[in-house]
Amino acid sequence: MMLSRGQVFVIAEQLDPTADLVVDALSDYNVPVLRFDLAEFPRSVLLAAEHRDDEPGWRGELTTGRRAAQLEEVRAVYYRRPGLPVLSPRMGDAYRGWALSQAVVGMVQILSSLPVVWMHHPDVYRASAHKPGQLVAATTAGLCVPRSFVGNSLAHAQRWGEGIGRPLVCKPIAAASLNVPDGPPTILPTRRIEVSDLDESLELTAHYLQECIPKEFEVRLTVVGQQMFPVAIHAGSEQARADWRSDYGALEYEPVAIPDEVAAGVRRFMAAYQLNYGAFDFAVRPDGQWVFFECNPAGQWQFIAQATKLPIAEAHASLLQGAVS
After folding, report:
1. Angle of CA points 154, 160, 161, to nearest 5°
2. Are residues 205 and 241 in the same domain?
3. What pLDDT was estimated at residue 5?
4. Which residue of 57, 77, 106, 312 has the smallest Cβ count within 10 Å?
5. 64 with 106, same domain?
6. How far is Cα 47 from Cα 40, in angstroms, rounded to an integer?
C-alpha cells in the first residue's frame, strides 16, 4: 500500500469527467491524489480517526485499498457532488436507515473538520447552492438580476406576471429530475411562457418564475479563486435560446471580456458565500447589460475548457496544491 504525504482528496463520483480533469492537472503538478466516492464507504473505504485530549484536530488514516493518507497531512479537498454511502447487503433492513446516517455524518464530519483548502466545504456548498438566496446575494453584491416570483398562489402569480408586462420564463427552483415511465430521468429545462399559460397546476408545488430577459447571448463565467474565465454561449436553435443546456449541439463558444463592475460584483458575491469556485450564468442584453441568473457552486466546466482550451483545470490544480490563485 502506498502512503503519500500532502495528498489532495478528490471526493467525487468515479464517472465524473470534471473530476478527471482536476486529477490530471494535479498530476502535472506532481501532487499526490487520493480519489474516492462516498458511495464506496463503508464497503471499500476504511476510516480510522482519533481525537486526542491535548490537541484540537482529528488524526488518523483513510484507506481506499491501494492508497492511504494520514488525515493530518492532507493539503486540500476537492469535494464535488459525491454519491451516498452504499451499505453492505448483510446490513439488516431495520438498521439500514440508521447505518446510512451514521456513515454520512461520520465520514463527512471528520473530513469537514480538516483545516485545509476546500472546494467546496459541505457547509459552504449547502449555504450557497439555492437560487432564491442567490438572487438576494447577487443584488446585494451590485449585480443586475431579473424580477422573480416564487410560490404556489395562482392569483398572486397572475397579478405579478401582468405587472411585468412581458413574457415570462418558468424554471426549476432546485436541481431535481423527473422519473418518466419507461425512460431515463429527465431534467426540466427553462421554458418561455405567457401569463395566460399559468393554471391551477401552479398550486401543486412551489414554482419559480422570472421575467424573460432579451438576450444578445449568454455567458458562462467560471471563477476559480481570483481567476475568471468568461465565455459567451451563442445559441443556434430556439430550444437552446430558451435554455442552452437543452441543445448542446446548437451552441458555439467564444471567450469574452467581463465588465469591471460585473467582475467586482462577482467577487463580492463569492466573498459573501466564502466560495473559491463558481459557475455563473449571465444573459447579456442587446444594450450590453449583464444580468445574473444563478451560480452553481459545483457546476460543470469541462465542456467550456474543451471548446475554448482555457486553463480551467490548471487553475483548479493551482489553487488545490497551494499556489497563489
Report:
1. 90
2. no
3. 53
4. 57
5. yes
6. 11
How far, in Å, are 19, 163, 173, 180, 296 from residue 222 at the CA level?
15, 34, 21, 32, 10
Spatial strand order of the sheet with 33-36 comes to 33-36, 8-12, 76-80, 117-119
Judgement on whether residues 164 and 223 belong to the same structural domain of the protein: no
User: What sign does the CA torsion over 111, 173, 130, 212 have?
Assistant: positive
| Pairing assessment for the beta strands 217-224 and 227-235 based on DSSP bridges | antiparallel
My answer on whether 205 and 218 are in the same domain is no
How many whole angstroms separate alpha carbon 94 and alpha carbon 120? 34
pLDDT of the residue at 180: 67
What are the tens digits of pLDDT across the range 16-37? 999 999 999 999 989 999 999 9
pLDDT at 324 over 70: no
State whether residue 322 is helix, strand or coil: coil
Residue type, 220: R
pLDDT at 246: 82
Does 112 score more than 90 pLDDT?
Answer: yes
Q: CA-to-CA distance for 157 and 211, rounded, in angstroms? A: 12
Give me the pLDDT at residue 94, please: 93
Give the residue from 211, 237, 255 where a domain finishes.
211
Judgement on whether residues 287 and 185 belong to the same structural domain of the protein: no
d(CA 138, CA 136): 5
Instruction: Give, in order, the Cα–Cα distances in Å from 113 to each of 67, 72, 77, 107.
Output: 21, 10, 11, 10
Is it true that the peptide bond before 42 is cis, omega within 30 degrees of 0? yes
Q: Which three cell numbers stand for residue 103?
A: 456513515
In terms of Cα–Cα distance, which of 96, 76, 8, 84 is closest to 39?
84
CA 116 to centroid of chain Cα atoms: 20
Q: What is the CATH number of the domain that holds 162?
A: 3.30.1490
185 lies in the same domain as 285: no
Provide the number of structural domains found in the chain.
3
172, part of any domain: yes
